[in-house]
Amino acid sequence: MRGKLYNRMAMVLLCMAIVLSACSSEKPADTAKKESTDTNLSAEGVLPISKEKVTVTITVPSSPYVLSWEYGKNELTTWLEDQTNVHIKWNFYPAADAKTKLNLELSSGGDLGDLIMGNFSLDNSSLATYGSQGIIRKMEDLIDKHGSNIKKMYTEYPNIKQATSAPDGHIYGLAQAGICYNCDRAMRFWVNKSFLKSLNMSVPTTTDELYQYLKAAKEKDPNGNGKKDEIGIVGSKTSWFAKADQFIMNAFTYQDANGLYVKDDKVIAAYTTPAWRDGIRYLNKLSKEGLIDQTSFTNDEAQLKQIVELNNGNNVAAVPSGGPHAFAANDATRLNYEIVPPLKGPGGFQTSYFNEFGVVGSYQFAIPANGKNADVVMKLVDFMYSKEAYLRSRYGVEGVNWEVPKGTLAANGEPAKFKLVGKDLWGEPQNAHWSGANSTWPPFGSDSREVLPDGKFDLEKVLYNAAKLYDKTAGKVSVPKFFFEPKTATRFNELKTEISKKLEADIADFIVGNRDIEKDWDKFQAELKNMGNDEYISIMQKEYDAKWKGSKK
């Protein structure tokens, strides 16, 4: 018995030894593998990314402006691969239905490679949904390890990190930084300089002066062709801040493009206030007297330009727009329009639109959870957020497509930081870059470009000077970019879509007189209430209180 017991104990000890031996032999192998992977990668922010060539697959919308994306043919691809030692294999989606196909692949668990890049119109709702389901990878751990440039951007522009962090605290997508001084102050208005000269009038500064100018333009033949064919105001429902009501309403109330604003930490629907009603009254007066062209409510941008260019570009008295390039086709016509300062309304109210959250651009990068080489991908993406990578991504090759000038001024009045060599390749078929597919963090705005010679239409200088003028009365009242959890986002988007449709239709009807702002005001407010406007505001207020309260002080 004693011998059998010893034998059994010996067998047990032998098995334990074998197991321990196996475990000890596996551990060094795993450690060696991990150390090999880690040592193959460079330190944070150091190039090349990998000692050995690594291949990553990037899913991107195709572009008619990129002739080739391949190494040796595309300048940006070649430069990035040479700098990083990362080879890119491309997975193209047709641009026309890229968003639809992406959502289909995400929801079905399709192979999206190692990185999703470009303008797929990813929004907070889809990122929160796919992220919470584990389909898109959370990024904050990778950013912490490898995101030196991204972390700098978050420090300099905390709104970006706050606005793109999901309700669960994770980051599922990386957005571009929208560094554009004039873009954030783009709810502007322009008047015809030759009309002013012919009428011996000055640029309007009040709503009453604007009315007098428009009336004179309609009645006194300032273009001198012997006909009363001049148009007062003409706008567009689709062009850049070209809706007939947008700029003028700033003489009566705060509002953004959605008719909202924040005051004293409260989200307010301007279109429910007496001040907004007063603005509609004024616009209706202009319309009744034929001072607002009725096509303003149906024009697209091309139609707007056609109307402005009639009579050799001397046809329209005033245009609401972000800039002359968006409403006039020819430089001579663009030069003939002057910026109007923010108007004072009948009660002395005066403000100008300022989107302080404009720095939060569209999402450009997301990492599929089933992709490979996440560390390499994050290091590659972080490199794209560097200064040189951005400049090459936007303008092309230094010394070929752009260069740093010496001793010249920029459109913003400071020393110029770049000038184009030849034609800007943006919107042109080329092999210099990826046409914005990897837009990231510009080191400076486009107004840092060297000024053009006198006599030429210099868009950057015109827009910068206009924005600087508007900055004097800009209110810090814009609504943040909210990040709702998926169910709330679905309900919010439903409400926003329906309310936006109603506002667009009813604003036009009130202005042209199809609805009476006096008789139908209470009915209009009741209709909004029945559509869920109170819930719409409440959803935003709850998110504002949780994430943004006190941010405007």
Task: Write up this protein.
The chain has 553 residues and is of the alpha/beta class. It has helices spanning 2-40, 75-84, 98-108, 124-132, 140-146, 148-156, 158-163, 193-199, 207-219, 246-249, 274-288, 301-308, 310-313, 331-335, 374-384, 387-395, 459-471, 486-512, 521-531, 533-547, and strands at 54-61, 86-93, 115-117, 174-177, 189-192, 231-233, 260-263, 266-269, 316-320, 337-339, 360-366, 402-403, 419-420. A hairpin with a 2-residue loop joins strand 7 (260-263) and strand 8 (266-269). Helix 18 (486-512) crosses helix 20. The longest helix is centred in the N-terminal third of the chain and has 39 residues, at 2-40. Mean pLDDT is 92; it is low at 1-37. Keywords: Signal. This is Extracellular solute-binding protein.
> Please, what is the average pLDDT?
92
| Unreliable residue stretches | 1-37
Biggest sheet descriptor: 5 strands, mixed
- Number of helices, counting only DSSP H or I runs of 4 residues or more: 20
* Strand ordering within the main sheet: 2-1-3-11-4
What spatial form do the alpha-carbon principal axes imply? globular
Number of strands: 13
Alpha carbon gyration radius? 29 Å
Strand content: 5-15%
**What is the helical fraction, as a range of percent?**
40-55%
Class computed from helices, strands and strand pairing: alpha/beta
CA-CA gap between termini: 87 Å
List keywords for this structure.
single chain, 553 residues, alpha/beta, four-stranded mixed sheet, 20 helices, disordered N terminus, signal, Extracellular solute-binding protein
